[in-house]
Amino acid sequence: SNEADYGSAIYHSNETTLYINETHITDNNALIRCAIEVNNSNYTRIINTVIANNIAKNANALAIISTNRDVECDIYNSTIIGGVKNRSLITLQVGYGDVLDMNIYNSIVAHQDVAFDKNIVVFNNNILNLNSEHSYFQGASVPGTTNMNLYSFVNGALSLNADYSLMDCSLGIDAGNDAFVLTSLDVMGNTRKVGTVDMGAYENQNGCQTKDAPSKNEDAVEQEQIKEEEMELSITKLYPNPVVNELNVEFDLPSEGSHHIVITDIQGRTVKTISLENQMGHQTQRLDVTDLAPGNYLMILQSDKDRMVEKFIKM
């Protein structure tokens, strides 16, 4: 939540090195260029870092500028998520006669607006070597480059939680390359590598395990236990996701009382509220989201004592 004309969170320049490790850089506002501006530094390395919801008229996450020397930047296992109404997530600017080597490994670069197609933009390009390995790019656009290896290693929605960590069974789980793992912990201090390393700053600790089918005796015991225990507030299904017009939500309410479904945008502003007064048990609601602008939203199921949160994308 910092503000500045340039590099509102970090401004770094002139023949030095910059290391950013296991950091959250969020909600910063720049007049012209990005939360992080790296201007003519020799080397920059970013590891296990979340750069999200930053706002600027130009790149809202990261700008790498090389105008009077050769520069290298390496990004490992980081998650870069754009805010709204921005020109790009990453800006690369290379002056005449200079070289910029940009390498992105095991990382996620995505924008909240699914129609946004300029996650990476290049200005004044002379020699840019842009390389990615085992990373995800949503709508990446790099005009004017010649030396480029930039592609999404997986296709489809990654299924991210509200904090941009990978949901269980996300396509980003185990989709990284262990050769590019430089630390033993992720951004939250959890084990960095569970199975094969995941994409992004977070390492999902659960993966996508399925429970073996129980025998009849086990099933009977389990049913008895369910009857004895009070049902918990939970969301069991949220589909389709991404959604265009109608979002279906299946959930369990443990008892009668004051329950609500609240939809907020990613900044926490409430855009829709549905009362579930004095309902209980397994429920299905069809929510009309036609009037919502394209982007990421949170669907919150809440009672007097508890709340559940799921993220969905409005196309």
Key structural traits:
1 helix; six-stranded parallel sheet; single chain; 315 residues; elongated
Short summary of the structure?
Helix content is 4%, strand content 43%. It is mostly beta strands.
So how many helices? Answer: 1
The proportion of residues in beta strands is 35-45%
- In the sheet with the most strands, the strands line up as 3-7-10-13-16-18
Task: Quote the distance from N terminus to C terminus.
Answer: 28 Å
The assigned structural class equals mainly beta
Give a count of the beta strands, DSSP E runs of length 2 or more.
Answer: 25
Largest sheet: 6 strands, parallel
Explain what the structure shows.
A hairpin with a 4-residue loop joins strand 21 and strand 22. The protein has one helix spanning 216-228, and strands spanning 3-6, 10-13, 17-21, 24-26, 29-33, 36-39, 43-47, 50-54, 59-66, 71-76, 79-82, 88-94, 99-105, 108-111, 120-123, 127-133, 136-137, 147-149, 234-239, 246-253, 260-265, 270-275, 281-288, 295-302, 307-314. The strands form six sheets. It has a six-stranded parallel sheet with strand order 3-7-10-13-16-18, with no helix packed on it. Strands 2-6-9-12-15 form a five-stranded parallel sheet, with no helix packed on it. It is mainly beta. The two termini are 28 Å apart. The longest helix is centred in the C-terminal third of the chain and has 13 residues, at 216-228.
